[in-house]
Amino acid sequence: MRVSIIVAMYNVEMYIGRCIESLIQQEANDFEIVCINDASTDQTSMIAHKYENLNKMVRVLDNNENRGLSYTRNRGIKEASGEYLWFVDGDDYIQDRFAIEKLYKVANENTLDILAFSAHYEYENNELKEKYDQFARNKDYLRPPVVVTGKEFFVYHMNEDKFWSCVPFYIYRRTWMLENDIMFPPILFEDNYFMPLALYKADRVSWINAKYYVYYRRTNSITTRKNASAEKVESIMFVLDNLLGFWETTDYRKEEFLSQKKYINMLTSALVDEYMNVLKNNEKLRFRNIKHYHLFLMLMEQRYPLVSDHLDGQLIHTVLNYSSVIVYGAGFICKSVQNLLRDLHIGDYKIAVTNSTCIEIYSLKELVTEKDALVIIAAEGEKKIEMTDYATNLGFNNLLFVS
Predict the structure, then answer these.
(1) Rounded CA separation 240/300 (Å)
(2) How far apart are CA 11 and CA 81, in angstroms?
């Protein structure tokens, strides 16, 4: 068997037919489609079994209970028999009828561990497109393809902002995965851990500048569903902790350090976004171990120095309830508050200090016409008391203290 396509399915009755149709229409020889239903509560399994009854290439397996995407993919690795594996999500599809044939030819002729390619994004609505499309732009593989190590691939494409951490945008040699015990961890954001780890263990990697995969962004998918931010925070902490631990055991040059730092910064930004959602939704954070908890506190203190201990749902909702915000203060605390406002996507705010120094920075007295604004006092000790009295005397009554 040349290629095994592993299709993970969970409540995708609206999309699974399109997915399987795009696979069985492939102009390729000697491949199989292994569909694994993760205990869907809709008609996903029934639809997939209909295709199984009509086409001998399709095999459908059902998990006894909902085990998550990582377990489902890991089961697919064990059940598959192809030389190469392609992980496809049940709500996505393939847009080139010759994709499998082309990918296998390049991978086989070059004895590759991993072969990368590009993807096209589609969105269920404009809101999702506005939110995510910026991350999908300008990531085509423009560099002429050569065979490199996985580490070289990661470093170059990460530093060029061309790196995809999405598992379906690659095919993998199955024996290499089994020999190196490369499996998916039981977390969300599993792709963000799996891809750097797999690449660092790969000796032969290349790429094709072609968009074979269509990634469909929709509401209520694993990555977009709401009220799961606490779980996402812990998953990102797992990725950060384990990747940092793995990279500490590897030798690296300056270029590698910069690419790793860039990747960690990207994950930290995702962590901040999900933490803001945790605070907005009043979710409760739970960490797997004390190490993750301490790492989280360290990252938050770096992001919000002198303020991180005071962040909670009530403070966040107070800030979000005002259409006009004034940050009154300077130094580290002011910088922390600015970071917080940016992370909450509040762009319309003013900074006031005791004496104005430039056109964008005001004295509080200059802003007395905005007495309904929320004034965030960014100061400590006696300065905090002095500034509070001054703001009150000017007629500002909506005061918030963050330190």
Answers:
(1) 14
(2) 26
